[in-house]
Amino acid sequence: MSDTAAGRTAAGGTGTREERALAALAQQTIELPSWAFGNSGTRFKVFAQAGVPRDPYEKIADAAQVHRFTGAAPRVSLHIPWDKVDDFDALARHAADQGVAIGGINSNLFQDDDYMLGSLTHPDPRVRKKAVTHHLECIDVMAATGSHDLKIWLPDGLNYPGQDSIRGRQDRLAESLQEIYAALTAADPAHRLILEYKFFEPYFYTMDVPDWGTSLLHCLALGERAMVVLDTGHHAPNTNIEFIVAQLLRVGRLGAFDFNSRFYADDDLMVGAADPFQLFRILHEIVQGGALAPDSGVNFMLDQCHNIEPKIPAQIRSVMNVQEATAKALLVDADALAQAQQDGDVLGANGLLMDAYNTDVRPLLAGLRESQGLDPDPLGAYRRSGYAETIVAMRVGGAQAGWGA
Ligand code: AOS
Ligand code: ZN
Ligand code: ZN
């Protein structure tokens, strides 16, 4: 970037653009998924790694390492029942002792035989009731852990035309969500229901929440504490994801991201690995929309599996990738961009974005970390800490994410 002159940008505040970027980056937080620390990955072989957590306590301990070296990952999402423990208060205290907090609570509607033909949309009211009741359990976990977000990814859908009524399933879904939302907001009016969408998989003819429009319609019907979750891996190839981000921000319904990368399907690879430019474009919409600050209502989460790479460093790398894309977005000269757009200066406007994208922000972020008392090189610092060797020596028989423990 050539210009660091004082002025107002979408990042807000005073000072040079770089100073404002640093201030915004210092506040940015990224939530980690507990399941990223267990053995997990594709439908095919899950390669077991030595030293992986044996229980939710150890998953949180590993997540805390990511926060220790990045200073930007202070929350961990839990998944019920994978992270079920006898005493959730104790788990929350353990998290606090480790310097992190419990983030969103993810329900699970895809591992029970009863759910073969659906859960919240199932034709049989008994199965729907069971699925709703699972969410009541998740709401109790929220109370015990201090979590604010109930995250629903609905795996329901159809494999064959005619298999069930598409419209009937939407009606049943609306009813089931209403019951969950009523219980959630009765427990605490500040709590949020955040609803994810996914265009295919595990079903292939249609999903019951296949797209952001369907998620948004259900959220609008529920009430103002219902928000859409955008998983970056859940779209058809070449979908313009930043358009969806801009649209949901406009109507105040972008609740959270599940960040990851995809090359083909729901790959769950490290965010920013496949397409760092797309991540930058998404973060540009976030910055332009004033949605970066922790109180903006958008929760920036990772949803990833690390099958062949070591998990803690992969999470550190992912946090750094989000930070780098954010830093570039914060360096866009917003005033000049607005002027170029107003003037119809197509190449000028595009050039301003590309200038920011092509800036090497690694020194800026290294400086930020040093100013926070952190090592400027989080991956190197983790490697040198010896934590990886310690857990390999201590832990035997680590868990596969998703199958208990
Ligand atoms: C599934 O495809 C969704 O991305 C979920 O958000 C998430 O991966 C799952 O809940 C973790 O099991
Ligand atoms: Zn997801
Ligand atoms: Zn997914």
TrEMBL record:
InterPro entries referenced in this protein's UniProt entry, alphabetically: L-rhamnose_isomerase, Rhamnose_iso-rel, Rhamnose_isomerase, Xyl_isomerase-like_sf
Per UniProt, the keywords (alphabetical) are: Cytoplasm, Isomerase, Manganese, Metal-binding, Rhamnose metabolism
Molecular function, one GO term: L-rhamnose isomerase activity
Q: What class of enzyme is it?
A: isomerase
Its GO biological process annotations read: L-lyxose metabolic process; rhamnose catabolic process
Q: Which PANTHER family match?
A: L-RHAMNOSE ISOMERASE
Give the protein name, as stated in the record: L-rhamnose isomerase
Question: Which organism does this record belong to?
Answer: Cellulomonas shaoxiangyii
